Amino acid sequence: MSSYSLTYSTELMQNYLQAEILAPDAKFQALQAQGGTSLLFSLGTDHALYVTREVPKARSGWARSDVSTAQIRKDFAGRTGVTCKDFATAQAATATSGAAPVHLAMVLSDGTNDRLYLSLNNSDSPAAWDKAPAWTAYPFDDPDHPLAQVKIAGVLIGEATDAQYIVADVIRNPSSAQPLVFRYYIDPARAGGRAWHPHDLAIDLAPGKYSSCLGRRAGQYVDGLYTIGQVAGAPQFMYQPLYNVFNPKVAAPPSLFTLPGGRTPEAIAACRNPDNSSDLYVTSGGTLYCLAAGSQQSGTVATPLFNSPRFNGVRSLYAATAGSSVMVWGLNAGNEVFFTTCQASQVTTGALGWSVPLPILTGAEQVSPYLDRANSAGTFFAHTGQNKLTKAVKSPATGMWTFSDITLDPPSGNAPAQSFTSYTTQVRVADTVTGQPAKGVPLTVTATNVTAVRINYLHYVIGPTPIQVPTDALGTVTIVEPVDSMAGTRLSVSAGGTRAEINPMDKAFKKAVALTTPALLTGATIVRPNGTTKKLVPAGASQAALQTVATANTRLGQAYTALPAALAANRLLSPATAGPRPGITAATSLSSPASILVDAGDLFCWLGEQIGSGLQYVVQLIEDGATKLWNFVVTIAGQVYQCVLDCVEAVVAATEWLYSQLKTALGDLLDYLEFLFEWNDITRTKNVMAHLTKVYLDHQVGQILVVKGEFDHMIASMEQAIGKWAGVGGWAGLGADGSATPNTKSTPNAQHSAPGWLLAHHYQNNGATLTTVKPLPPSTPSPNPITVLIQAIQHEGAVIGDTITRLQSLAADFETRPLLDTLKKLVAILADLVLESAKTVIDALFDILYDIAKAAVKLLDTPIHIPVVSDILNSFGVPDLSFLDLACWVAAVPVTLAYKVTAGRTPFPDNADTTFLITVADYPTLLNAFQPKQAAARSTTARAEAASVAAAGSPFAISATTALAVHITGHGFCGFSALFGGALISGFEAAQETGDNPWAIPSAVLGVLGGVSGGLANAVSNYVVPNDPIDNPYVSAVATATTAVRILCKLIFSGPAQAKFATTAKLGSLAVSDGRGVGAIVDAVLVIPSLACSAYHFYELSQKPVGSPRSIAIVEETSNLTNDIARVSYAVAVNTEEIPKAVAVGVMVVANICTGGLQIAECAMI
Amino acid sequence: MTAQKSNLSSPKYGYDFVVATTQASINATMKAFLSGLTQPVVTVCYVADFQGNPVLIDYDQLKKNAHGSDPFTIPANADPNTSQDLRNLVEARFMMGFRAQIGLPPGLAPGSIPDIVTLGSNTASVTYNLLCSKFSVVKLTPGGGYSPPAWFSQSQPAGSPWIFQSKVDLRLSTTSPTAYSKLPPAVQAQIKNLGAGAFTVQQLLFDLDNAALETIPTIKNVPPGDPLYSILQQFFLGAYFAQMRQNGSPVLGCTIKETKAPVSTLTLTDLNLEVLPFLGSNGQPIVNPTPAQQDLAALSYLCAADGNALPAAVPFSWNWVEANEQADFDGVVAINRNAFANYFRHQLAPYVPSNCYLPSVRVTYDAGKVETRYSWSMTSGQAPSFTMPATGPTVLTFHYGADSVDQAGLNGDLGKMELRPSYDISVSFTGNTIKVVQHLVVYLYVRSLATSTDGNVVDLTVTDTYTLGIGQDGRLAATLTTTRQDGSKNPSVDPFLNFWTDLNKIIGAVKNWLQAVVSPNLKAMPVSAAQNFVFPGGRTFAFKSAGFSDFGDLISHITYTDPS
Q1: B396-455 tens-digit pLDDT
Q2: Number of folded domains in chain A?
């Protein structure tokens, strides 16, 4: 088994999501599907029945289907106004293992009559049926009680494990002033020829004022219905089996119940036991009552359990057992969702046995319970006042509540992304042997809270139950947890045997509690990304309040430090059997005798709800003498509540309530704590690099004819030089550098950070839907030169094909092979004949370049839209962007952030140098600004073009600092382009079947950016740091020329002209079939002189003294080598299929990562 | 032919109320009762006296005599020649024993359990099946002479219960030669339970199970030639049954638990049982009823309340539950129209006199001032008369009327006044409503000199409609809507005549006074008048669908509550 190292970066930062948030429907119910995912049924405001299925590992996370309309079209063809007016769902609640089938009922109404439909025994893998469940119609068919009009008042499906029970209530006398309900038991098998069997209620009920729930009295053969209601204002409360088991023809015997004092029951909830019997919970006027399953004889008076204001006017009540605990939820008249839990054995022990029911949510309109069997967490879905459907989960391990939206696919591909506060964590997995990113490694993730996150852009619910996510090509797993407060979730990740405990809250928390004096508090300033500022604490806070918070910060800091970094194993172990936290962590020191000890998660949730309504409260922190745990004490409206801060999550949650005492808005606190992007700095980096890239490309386009004229001579001269060297011998002088493997020098993770990869992460995941806002510039190359080129390739086909195949065999494992070995094998491949063949092809290329290079460069300026990425850039003022902008932006963020971390300053401050770099008119002027005296002396003969531009003279001289910035940024861009563009985007591109794919241009542009930025870094390098360039002017010239040609070719062969090069040819094992293939072959041909130059350069270097200049040059030349290997692999990848293709893509990705790591390593070699 | 035809106030019947349920519902409910309840285990053993005759012996004593050997634990295949236990039993002179427990026989699906009661067509001959959850029989023949010893032990097998079927005389009347009438008073009181449990299936089972009311049972599901048959015949149905019958005891010690129930408005003081076979559309019992029709036969509890005499049992001419109602409810409680009207009369009684006015007028002439003086007053609290029509929707009326006249001068030529109030209440029962109409009228005549006028200066009608519902425990629930109509007239004379007499002023004064005094007293009837009524049989039954029959009986559908 491989061993891995884990590194991570985590920040509280803005993140973005392109999705539609599910708006609540008229009625909804939630069930759990296989694998612990949620299944929501809802009646839309458009009167259609919807199934919304949670789809883990999918992008939006949820998928919604209309399951009624098709049936209406089928059964009511040609009729309008037929709607779904009601539905019911059920699932066997006690099926802890095996299947838990889903039963559905819906009521279709044509306005006059209603018709019942059932779809029973659907599998709990809703993907199989959620788009079109099989419905069976059950029209009313009772001949004994004919109805002039069939009006269904309600439907219920039982969830017992031994049978399905379906009950439908009709209105007996719909036209009467006093309508009454008549009840039926539905037999789906239609035994006896009919489905509707009258089983009327034994009592009177006024419609609209009753509610029923299915359950079972202990010792009974079948399920029954508990029903509460009223008749003429008098309470009615009973249980009645669905049918009489001793004689189904007669009424089933009811059991009548009352509440003490004849009170009117307001809500009921049956709580199933494993034997299918059910305890009944009842609320009325602020009291929770219970009728235990074994104490439901007729005449029983319900037992009061305890009182709470939460139990006033309860509209819906739910109860469930999980493990050894009972949970009771509900929604009360004050639109509060409350929650209370108790050990099953303690139900009747009074208020002390139960957790204090606090309002978890306020402003809720509807609630549906949900039992998460995977995590045994208290879970519910609620329709809140913000017109949102929220999934709320109480985590078994921490007791904290998390809330998530139901996110659907966006309505359109370009729908704007929404920003949200997140803890964004990027984990990188590297192979400990190679030190390089480990692709496709399953990373196991567990979390302290049960919460919905996006991992590598896909929806997951994480929690104590482990999930596995494979790393991407860069060994990366990105976890984005949306939060609406400081409180987040700790993660534990592992790969192989290596584990890392990640606390994303750490930075933010420590920053928040660092303000330990009133002065620090009043001095704290929020800096916004656009540079504006605001005081964290609004003016007017009293000295006493400031002192309280300052002191509390110190204490919270202590509390935090004292707690273990990872949750104790016993709190995470087997949650399915442990159930929710059994009761509340005890406090031994109460702040006052009147203190109510409450659950920390519930209390913070409630406070969160109350802050919005301007509630006044006072916070205090006390240390429990016995447990040494800190307790949070809050006084609200004269009542003291106390909770124990026994986990990091709770301590962090406490912090924000501290600050809101100072009238600091939660949003401001988050702004203060969030990672600060400082977009102005990033913008200048991007502008510099984008402009310089264009200056360089324009210059190269202008040089095509010059190079064409000299190329044959250059090659001939180079061949001479190589010929001379070949007589001298190898690279023994490289010493240790020669026996080192490329990967040891590659540091691909050096500049990695979660914020740095914000844009790249979204680009990576949205690039496939990139669109051009304007058409691509037309490209009409003359047919003649193309024919010449293709003939040249075909003519040299045998040699080229053979060379590519041999180079490809060299590519495998190159990164872990000593450099010297690679060079030796390389020389064996690069005979004179090969170089000549390459020359023939390249000669044919020049005419094409001359013909269309100018147009190809224009491609870079084509305006584009890319979902999410464009939205992020728009959000801080970038209205539109081009291919080049996009590439520069994604690179500018990590490079600028890394530069600032390393150098302690921004690479391109707003100064004259930067202005020059952003506006410089042409390449010679640019290079001139970088011509220091001493550097010029060192490189007079090094580069033909450098020498030529030197003569032009320049009045502007770039400072050494800026030159260094260009150098580091150039390598940074080059490295990023290789990692992101080469490994990821080109990986996607190469994997596609044809060249006509959305990744083609982005991949090429990143390649161009990488080539140019690397070239720029080298062009200015001597000014910054001595290195050892190629001494031989001809070899150097060939190197420079082929680089330029290669960059221009990339644009030509990926752009609109690509198709014009389409041909079919067989080159050895490669089968060229399209323009992309031809382009890749041309690029591979260009590799040949490039490799020759590299081999020669290594020879020169082997003659140089050991030292920094040589080391830099070796790293740079190694990166050329790995880059060349990637290009050869690409040529193989796009001209082969299936396994050879996949292998080639893999090698290309690894090679690009190595290149990127080497380039990034160069940033630090100064 | 439904309960809608209930006509208890007919001279033919005259019961204050009737509780009636179907055979099917009784059986289902008895089974539910037995499914959830453990009746005592009865163990009976016989030993031989010195003549070899069976004599009862206490079970524990037997075991003591047999040195701890228990006949019910010895396997059926034990060899009497070798088994020490059997030898012990021989020494103890053991002959025979059985052990039984009333209950649902095991091994049958709930829907396949045989019925316990078949009502048939005759109250004196109701078929009762004694079912046992356990029944074991053991018999030991000591052997001797030419016969070897023999050991017999058999138990009721699962899925094939032994049934002991008898005919029971359920007539609980002492005025005719019924089985009941021959019982000692203490046993009679146990059987005719007038308490809260009067209508329960538990009580009915207790009554059915009383050996004194039963014929000697016949054994079903055991072949007559079988040794078991003869043993049961000899010992269980012979010696044991005879003894139970002699004591008036339940066979196999059936017990019931007293229940508490809401106090009924009508206090049950006597009852009798009556079987009513299912009637065909011609109103006559169906001669050869199908099992489904037999299921609909009803058992009626004929009840007298508050010490009223209980009329003799007479078959009803309607079915209490029709075939299409069988699944909806188990039976009916019907309150005699007159009984309920009487109740209602008592509810209204305290209220009525407040609107019964005795008027008083005085007209005098003051010669000194040359003017005629009018004075008047009315005193409420007078006693009204009432009627209770025997038929028709109006079940109760109250009436009060009085008159007062005075005059001055000759033949009233100086002035005359008359005040004539009347107050009527009529109460009618229709559908699910009680309508109470109050009508208060005050007639005024005034004369001054030769000018006179008259009219109903007060004419108020208040109509209260109680729409009945019923609480699950049998308490009436009602919603009250009240309408008020004012037909009061404003008698007056024309301005010319008024100039001379100022008669309009007098009329106005009288009218205003009357309106001020009378109007506030005329209120809607309190809703409690209806809501205070509690049906008999609460707790035993769940109640729904209260309303009046075509003949004004107050009916509620009832369903047995789960007795388990």
Answers
A1: 999 999 999 999 988 888 889 999 999 999 999 998 899 999 999 999 999 888 888 899
A2: 3
Q: Hey, is A671 helix, strand or coil?
A: helix
Within 8 A of B542 by CB-CB distance, chain A residues are: 202-203, 238, 254, 256
Q: Which of left, alpha, beta for B93 (phi over 0: left; psi -120 to 50: alpha)?
A: left
Half-sphere exposure of A623 (CA within 13 A, CB side): 11
User: Does A546 map to a domain?
Assistant: yes
Please state, in angstroms and rounded to a whole number, the distance separating the CA atoms of residues A172 and A142.
12
Helix, strand and coil in chain A, % to nearest 5? 40, 25, 35
Question: Average pLDDT of A759-771?
Answer: 91
Which residue of A lies nearest to B23 if distances are taken between CA atoms?
A250
Q: Is residue A467 part of a domain?
A: no
Two structure tokens written together for B37 = 């309840």
CA distance A232 to chain B (A): 6
Q: Does A1101 map to a domain? A: yes
Contact A197 B327 (CB under 8 A): yes
This prediction has a pTM of 0.81
Q: How far apart are CA A323 and CA A576, in angstroms?
A: 7
Q: What angle do CA A798, A802, A803 make, to 5 degrees?
A: 120
Q: Is residue A1022 part of a domain?
A: yes
Distance (Å, rounded) from C-alpha B558 to C-alpha B333? 7
Asked if residue A137 and residue A10 are part of one domain, the reply reads yes
Binary contact (B544, A232; C-beta < 8 A) = no
Helix pair A912-919, A960-976: axis angle to 10 deg: 50
* pLDDT tens digits, one per residue of B329-386: 999 999 999 999 999 999 999 999 999 999 999 999 888 888 888 999 999 999 999 9
Distances (CA, A) of B216 to A267, A854, B123, B240: 54, 119, 17, 11
Mark which of A408, A436, A463 sits at the end of a domain: A408
Rounded Cα distance between A832 and A120, Å, is 76
Domain identity same for A577 and A703: no
* Tokens 């309340």, residue located: B305
Is the separation of the CB atoms in A169 and A184 below 8 Å? yes
Burial letters A843-857, b for 16+ CB under 10 A, else e: bbbbbbbebbbbbbb
Instruction: For chain B, say whether A909 makes contact (Cβ under 8 Å).
Output: no
Residue B77, C-beta contacts closer than 8 angstroms, at least 6 positions apart: none
CA–CA dist A217, B464 (Å, integer): 43
Distance between B337 CA and the closest CA of chain A, angstroms: 23
Q: Which of residues 106-125 of B touch A (CB under 8 A)?
A: 110-111, 113
**C-alpha–C-alpha distance, residues A1064 and A1077, integer Å:** 9
Whole-angstrom distance, CA of residue A1129 vs CA of residue A1135 = 10
Dihedral (Cα; A949, A951, A955, A959), 10-degree rounding: 60
Domain of A35, CATH number, reads 2.130.10.150
pLDDT digits (tens, 9 = 90+) for B259-318: 777 788 899 999 999 999 999 988 899 989 999 999 999 999 999 999 999 999 999 999
Residues A592, A620, single domain; the answer is: yes
Predicted ipTM? Answer: 0.91
CA atoms within 13 Å, Cβ hemisphere of A128 = 10
Q: Does A713 touch chain B (CB under 8 A)?
A: no
Q: How far apart are CA B410 and CA B149, in angstroms?
A: 123
Residues of A in contact with B200 (CB under 8 A): none
Q: Which of A660, A650, A652, A649 is nearest to A617 (CA)?
A: A660
pLDDT in tens, A1067-1120: 777 888 888 888 899 999 999 999 989 988 998 898 888 888 888 899 999 999
Where a domain ends, among A377, A408, A439? A408
Residue keyed to tokens 């299409």: B324
